[in-house]
Design brief:
The complex is a heterodimer of chains A (646) and B (209). Helices cover 46% and strands 20% of the residues of chain A. Chain A contains 17 helices and 20 strands. Chain A is elongated, with a radius of gyration of 47 Å. About 4% of the residues of chain A have low confidence. Chain B is α/β, with parallel strands linked by helices. Chain B has a single domain, classed as Rossmann fold, CATH 3.40.50.12140. In chain B, helix 2 crosses helix 7. The radius of gyration of chain B is 16 Å and the shape is globular. Chain B starts with a helix and ends with a helix. The chains are: A alpha+beta (646), B alpha/beta (209). At the A-B interface, strand 14, strand 15 and strand 18 of A face helix 1, helix 2, strand 2 and helix 7 of B.
Chain lengths: 646, 209
């Protein structure tokens, strides 16, 4: 090894020692500042500025300590200085080393004795002896500081201000401890079954999400001190990169989240989106039916299904009931499960063999379709169709089906249909007919129309008889009354030879009669024959003593809509004086309204947004109040004359 | 005027629903009307009526009887109306004419009811429905069908109900009062005990609570 190589090797070793010492010294200096603050905090209350400045000051102290060590030992980079450093510690060299490292002055081939003396020297031991002292000193200082930090635990001191400040400096923000609730974003992660992408709402006022969704609020700044409160349950924020984050689960009911950061507060409405159960509509068989003979062969059953998220599978359910009096037997069966592949719409179709259903006279056959969705959070949602009832008549039913004669709707429908066809023919033939003939035929058709109307009025009076001396309208009688009014219009037009004008009324009449005809169901066992009790004869003839207890008045039903209206009125009354409080009130009222009256909730959202912008909310609140008013009541019959004056 | 007169007196109503045999207890209305007249001074109409479950007329009757042996499958309109009726103060008595908890009426009717209102709750045997006119110390009176071991061969010790603001809005029974009370009122003369007295309690409760 040449003299130059020996010096370079020593230089590397010394450089490592210097760097290590610098780092340890820097740590000791920086940590020392924090230890000092921690010790002071134990004795006196520190000003609020101290926590904010502690980390920067400690960092500066550490860097300074490190820099001082490096500066003081900067000569370690020079070969000559290292050689001189060795000469100082090895006096026996007598400057042989500093001479030998320069090949121009003392080349090895011309001064072998000089180089031999260098090689014979023990430079390693000199270096070892030299680095022990500074390393030991700096390491001791660093360990002492570390031990004190471990004892003092100054995380709180560092967390509240220091890291915040550092971050803000890093973010280029000048404001110290600004409102960390500004610029909040909400990330919505729907439940896995929904197979929907995540979405983000910036600066959220309302977050609408499916039940079971994960709603994550994120903001800038340290997490310490940021909380979210839902129904008095508080959740602390966690660290996420350079900001804070709070994750909440979307519950089944809407809620208000209060985000808090020291004196700052922000309300966010979590609006629940409910996964609807599948809507199932049985398409085939189209309506309830009574078979006069046992049906044979195959029958297709079909249902269409829709869902807002995705369908899992569906099936048909069958029930066959037989029996009479007190003995009934029911068999239930289920069709094969049909996969719907997470689609939003689907069709169930199955062909059933009626011969295997063991149908017999008197049997009642029920069919319905069932579908499940994929909801594994609150479901699965189960949707069922209306049940179709197929009855098979018994031979004796012909006498017991309905003791009253059937309503003459069918014959009325056929008469009207024939009259419509004749009137249609008359309209087409009108140009070829002379006026007298046209008038004669049109007038005759008008009379026929009136005759059908009289039959309709007779049926109405039967339908509206409540069998106890009064009258009341039924669905059928109301429809029939509408048809009768149209018949009157048609009759008038035909009487004045205006068949063209009569025709639209007549077409509508036929449609209404058709609706009534198809809507009527026939019950094999007939209807209950109202038997009149002679009330006067039996009145209070019972001998068993009654011991009637005093009754408590029925609790008044809470009028939720009135309560909402009252709260809205209060919010409106403080809107001008205390707009912030009014906005908060409107947010809470809106959450209550989401379930009860969604249209009111919309109006309240508009009002809150307007108020935040400092605009007038009168119109929006009026809209909310109007939406809360009860719908117009239907009044049957004429309104009593209240009278004025007198 | 007619409407006011109709509403001023109690009219016994039987619910018509689109599935099943809603008319399976034809003599029951007459019998309970007789009992109401026999024991109380309630102004009662001499004949009952049947009312469609999906009709607005349902709301004209504060007490409605629903029974049957066959599957109960309400239509969407029937469900909607029944829920409104019960929640707005009506009283619906649902009686299993099969007196059988494994029977199809019980299975399907309770499924429909619980789908609309949530779980049926047991009515305590000291509830005021057992004391509001006649006193039934042990809760609902047993029927011959239970005592003779027919149907599910069980003595049902309680009735179930849907409560609306602490008031019974829908009462559900497996005791088969529809069979027990389905006889001509004149037959009461031959009976030592009138079994329809509990029916009077039901009507008094529906009208006064």
């Amino acid at each position: 090894m040449t003299a130059l190589q020996i010096v370079r090797r020593t230089r590397v070793t010394l450089a490592l020692v210097v760097v290590t010492t610098a780092v340890l010294t820097g740590f000791a200096a920086g940590g020392g500042v924090i230890v000092l603050a921690g010790l002071l905090q134990l004795v006196v209350a520190l000003p609020s500025l101290v926590p904010a400045l502690l980390v920067p000051v400690a960092t500066a102290a550490g860097l300074t300590g490190c820099a001082i060590v490096l500066w003081r030992n900067r000569t370690v980079v020079s070969v000559q200085h290292v050689a001189l450093w060795l000469e100082e510690r090895l006096p026996e060299l007598r400057y042989a080393l500093v001479t030998a490292i320069d090949p121009a002055i003392a080349p090895a081939d011309r001064y072998p004795a000089l180089h031999a003396r260098v090689r014979a020297s023990d430079t390693s031991s000199a270096v070892r002896t030299a680095w022990r002292r500074p390393i030991t000193r700096s390491l001791t200082a660093a360990l002492t500081v570390a031990a004190l930090l471990a004892v003092l635990q100054p995380q709180e001191l560092l967390g509240t201000g220091g890291t915040d400040l550092l971050r803000r400096v890093g973010n280029g923000e000048n404001e110290v401890l600004a409102n960390r609730l500004e610029g909040v974003i909400a990330r919505v992660s729907p439940p896995a079954y929904a197979r929907m992408d995540d979405s983000t709402v910036e600066d959220p006022v309302t977050v609408a999400a499916l039940v079971g969704s994960r709603v994550t609020f994120q903001g800038r700044g340290p997490s310490s001190g940021v909380t979210a409160i839902v129904d008095s349950t508080s959740t602390e924020a966690g660290e996420a990169g350079r900001g804070w984050t709070i994750a909440l689960q979307m519950d089944t009911a809407p809620a208000v989240v209060t985000l808090r950061d020291r004196e700052y507060r922000r309300l966010v409405v979590l609006e629940t989106v409910v996964d609807s159960v599948p809507a199932v509509r049985l398409r085939l068989p189209a309506r309830d039916t009574t078979y006069q003979t046992v049906p044979r062969g195959r029958m297709t059953v079909e249902a269409e299904i829709t869902d807002d998220i995705g369908l899992a599978h569906g099936w048909f359910e069958y029930m066959v009931s037989t029996g009479s009096a007190e003995v009934f037997e029911t068999r239930t069966s289920q069709g094969r499960r049909i996969g719907l592949d997470n689609a939003r719409t689907g069709t169930l179709r199955e062909v059933i063999d009626l011969d295997t259903m063991r149908l017999a006279p008197g049997t009642v056959f029920h069919i319905r379709a069932v579908a499940l969705d994929h909801n594994d959070v609150t479901g699965p949602g189960k949707g069922v169709s209306d049940t179709r009832t197929l009855r098979i008549a018994e031979p004796e039913d012909s006498t017991s089906i309905n003791p009253t004669p059937p309503l003459p709707i069918d014959s009325m429908w056929m008469s009207q249909r024939r009259l419509n066809m004749m009137t249609d023919t008359l309209i087409r033939m009108a140009p070829q007919l002379d006026r007298q003939e046209l008038t004669h035929r049109s007038s005759a058709y008008g009379n026929a129309q009136d005759e059908i109307r009289q039959r309709a009025l007779a049926v109405i009076s039967i339908l509206e008889d409540d069998a106890v001396g009064g009258t009341f309208q039924t669905q059928t009688s109301t429809k029939l009354r509408e048809a009768a009014d149209l018949m009157y219009e048609a009759r008038v037009n035909l009487a004045i030879t205006m068949p063209d004008s009569a025709m639209p009324h007549m077409i509508r009449v036929l449609e209404i009669l058709d609706e009534i005809r198809l809507a009527n169901r026939y019950y094999l066992r007939g209807i209950i024959q109202p038997a009149a009790v002679n009330v006067a004869r039996v009145r209070l003839t019972g001998e068993d003593p009654a011991t009637e207890e005093p009754r408590r008045p029925r609790a008044e039903l809470a009028d939720e809509r009135a309560a909402l209206a009252e709260r809205i009125a209060h919010a409106a009354s403080i809107a001008r004086e205390q707009p912030d409080a009014a906005v908060d009130s409107l947010v809470y009222i809106r959450v209550a309204a989401l379930r009860l009256a969604p249209d009111v909730a919309d109006a309240l959202a508009s009002a809150a947004a307007l108020l935040r912008r400092g605009e007038s909310v009168d119109t929006a609140l009026d809209r909310a109040r109007r939406a809360l008013e009860p719908p117009p009541a239907r009044i049957r019959g004429p309104v009593e004359w209240s009278g004025i004056g007198n | 005027m007619e409407r006011n007169r109709k509403l001023s007196r109690f009219v016994f109503a039987t619910a018509e629903y689109s599935s099943g045999d809603w008319e399976s207890a034809p003599a029951l209305p007459e019998n309970l009307i007789d009992s109401v007249a026999r024991y109380t001074s309630i102004d009662v109409a001499p004949s009952g009526v049947s009312v469609r479950l999906d009709s607005e007329e349902l709301f004209d009757y504060p007490f409605v009887w629903l029974t049957g042996h066959l599957p109960v499958r309400f239509t969407e309109a029937e469900r909607r109306n029944l829920k409104r009726y019960v929640e707005r103060g009506g009283f619906m008595m649902v009686d299993d004419h099969n007196h059988d908890i494994t029977g199809i009426f019980h299975q399907t009717a309770t499924e429909e009811i619980e789908r609309l209102f949530g779980r049926l709750e047991q009515v305590p045997n000291d509830h005021e429905i057992y004391r509001c006119f006649f006193v039934f110390e042990n809760g609902p009176p047993h029927t011959n069908h239970e005592l003779n071991g027919w149907g599910d061969d069980l003595l049902h010790l309680h009735l179930d109900a849907i409560f609306v603001n602490d008031r019974i809005g829908l009462l559900y029974s497996n005791k088969d009062y529809s069979s027990e009370w389905n006889f001509h009122p004149e037959t009461k003369r031959t009976l030592q005990q009138d079994p329809t007295k509990f029916g009077v309690n039901l009507i008094v409760y529906a009208l006064t609570r």
